[in-house]
TrEMBL record:
It comes from Cantharellus appalachiensis. Residues 155-440 form the NADH:quinone oxidoreductase/Mrp antiporter transmembrane domain. It catalyses: a ubiquinone + NADH + 5 H(+)(in) = a ubiquinol + NAD(+) + 4 H(+)(out). The gene is nad4. It is a multi-pass membrane protein. InterPro entries: NADH_Q_OxRdtase_chainM/4, NADH_UbQ_OxRdtase, ND/Mrp_TM. This is NADH-ubiquinone oxidoreductase chain 4. The chain crosses the membrane at residues 46-65, 97-123, 135-154, 160-178, 190-212, 232-254, 266-289, 295-313, 325-345, 351-375, 387-411, 431-452, 473-495. Its EC number is 7.1.1.2. Core subunit of the mitochondrial membrane respiratory chain NADH dehydrogenase (Complex I) which catalyzes electron transfer from NADH through the respiratory chain, using ubiquinone as an electron acceptor. Essential for the catalytic activity and assembly of complex I.
Length: 509
């Protein structure tokens, strides 16, 4: 089943490869232009159907998942390539490509989130990408496979390979199809910043293999690693994940990447890419290096509080509408980190639920401000917008709802996630929890300010009157709205499924 999840996007990409695509500007005859447009429509339909099929497979996997066991499920293993080594005149076969995959309660919902967000990404730029469309769609399908692989592999070295491989399609998506000249700088910042951070993870994995002879996550988690060794390994892994979260001061690349990326790129960055680090904290730091995690928890909480307050204040000062959503993501992910390092079930469950909620709400806000508004007016400067409620009432209603969700109001999954995360931190350190709760106040400040500035007042003289959101844009937002409300009203859908896996994680500590 997991292999199918990984292969379906690749198969869809192979169907796209033979289709010939030409730049419409190079075609003179109307008949050739029409054929070219039909080929482009076919490519988009193939990519969308492929991603929807993968979502259906992920839902089937979710239905078949048994939350009453702590064991990995749907386990598959491939050790086809081996290295032969002589030990006391005996030839031993050592597999050096150990492709070992499985799913537990922790990884299940991240896989579902990836499969859910990918069709949204493809639909979001349905009419905007006109050049090299085939390669754009292939990049997203390959990116889906790489992201799912990060969440299902059970080997540290393979985890590192896929963790870094997602940078390649992201680099292409931002660098080729991004907005304006800064897209080149943004793509290189994303690639080089996160690659630099991940080199420390590679060194840590090499040390683990050298000392313990394996990179199997389950096997390493059973090893007794001395505290001094754990500390150095923990720091190496933490730096890598801090770049991807991102936490202060490793967040510099995020704003550039979001503001320069096409809409689909911003959605996948906020929806899934930032969750790779969340999963890494759970799967590696808390599971394999528990003593060092406990030792460094005050440091992590301090960094998270600094990130939360700094990002919130920076958000208030943004003049770019995509920049507001980008910096608010840093603040929300800081609350996630607080919950992860609370060392109790309540906090970790809240952090996972808040990660999922952020994966729904933040893409929706990008669709509204970076899609609906930008596609009509081709500017992201907040000062040019005013009085949108007069001409775009449906847009204003959707913007209002997702603004409330972003603030963490009741009946949203964000509220449940933030409440559980902060309640978990409170049990460990009430002062940190009180400081973390200021994020709710700051979130209300910049969210209400942005909504009020864009929606109300007299209509801006700088922008013409235009049409409200289209059917495609509405259907993009509706699943995100429903998912956020359902998880806000019935959070036990997720909490009960992950309870045993989280309990086992802390029991191992």
């Amino acid at each position: 089943m997991i292999t199918l999840l990984l292969l379906i996007p690749i198969i869809g990409s192979l169907f796209l490869v033979p289709i010939k695509e030409q730049d419409s500007r190079e075609l003179i005859e109307e008949s050739e232009k029409l054929k070219n447009e039909n080929r482009k429509r076919l490519m988009k339909q193939i990519a969308l159907i492929t991603s929807i099929v993968n979502l259906i497979v992920a839902i089937i996997l979710w239905i078949q998942f048994d939350p009453s066991t702590t064991q990995y499920q749907f386990v598959e293993e491939y050790t086809g390539l081996s290295l032969y080594k002589q030990v006391e005149n005996i030839e031993i076969s050592l597999p050096y490509i150990h492709f070992y995959v499985g799913i537990d309660g922790i990884s299940l919902y991240f896989v579902l989130l990836t499969a859910f967000i990918t069709p949204v990404c493809i639909l979001s730029n349905w009419e905007d990408i006109t050049t090299k469309l085939k390669y754009y769609l292939i990049s997203f399908l390959i990116l889906e496979t790489l992201q799912i692989a990060v969440f299902v592999v059970l080997d540290l070295l393979v985890f590192y390979v896929f963790f870094e491989s997602v940078l390649i399609p992201l680099f292409l998506i931002i660098g080729i199809w991004g907005a304006g000249i800064p897209r080149i700088r943004a793509s290189f910042m994303l690639f080089l910043y996160t690659l630099l951070g991940s080199l420390w993870m590679l060194l840590a994995i090499m040390v683990i293999y050298n000392n313990y002879g394996s990179t199997d996550i389950q096997l390493i988690s059973l090893k007794e690693i001395a505290l001094d060794n754990q500390k150095w390994l923990w720091l190496a892994f933490f730096i890598s994940f801090a770049f991807k979260t991102p936490l202060f001061p490793f967040h510099i690349w995020l704003n550039f990447a979001h503001t320069s990326a096409p809409l689909g790129g911003s959605i996948i960055l906020a929806g899934v890419i930032l969750k790779l680090a969340t999963y890494g904290y759970l799967r590696i730091l808390i599971s394999i290096l528990p003593d060092a995690t406990n030792y460094f928890s005050p440091l992590v909480q301090t960094i998270a509080i600094i990130s939360l307050i700094y990002a919130s204040l920076a958000t208030i000062r943004q003049t770019d509408i995509k920049g507001v959503v980008a910096y608010s993501s840093v603040a929300h992910m800081a609350v996630v980190v607080l919950g992860l390092f609370s060392n109790n079930i309540q906090g970790i469950q809240g952090a996972i639920l808040l990660s999922l909620a952020h994966g729904f709400v933040s893409p929706a806000l990008f669709i509204l401000v970076g899609g609906v508004l930008y596609h009509r007016y081709h500017t992201r400067t907040i000062n040019y917008y005013r009085g949108m409620v007069l001409t775009m009432p449906i847009f204003t209603i959707m913007f209002f709802l997702f603004t409330l969700f972003n603030m963490g109001t009741p009946l949203s999954a964000n509220f449940i996630g933030e409440f559980l995360s902060l309640a978990g931190v409170f049990q460990r350190n009430p002062v940190i929890a009180a400081l973390g709760a200021t994020g709710i106040f700051f979130s209300a400040c910049y969210s209400i300010w942005l909504y009020n500035r864009i929606s109300y007042g007299s209509h801006s003289k700088y922008i013409p009157v235009t049409y409200d959101i289209s059917r495609r844009e509405f259907m993009l937002l509706l699943p995100l709205l429903i998912a956020t409300l359902v998880l806000g009203i019935f959070p036990n859908i997720v909490l009960e499924s992950i309870a045993l896996s989280v309990s086992t994680l802390l029991y191992n500590i």
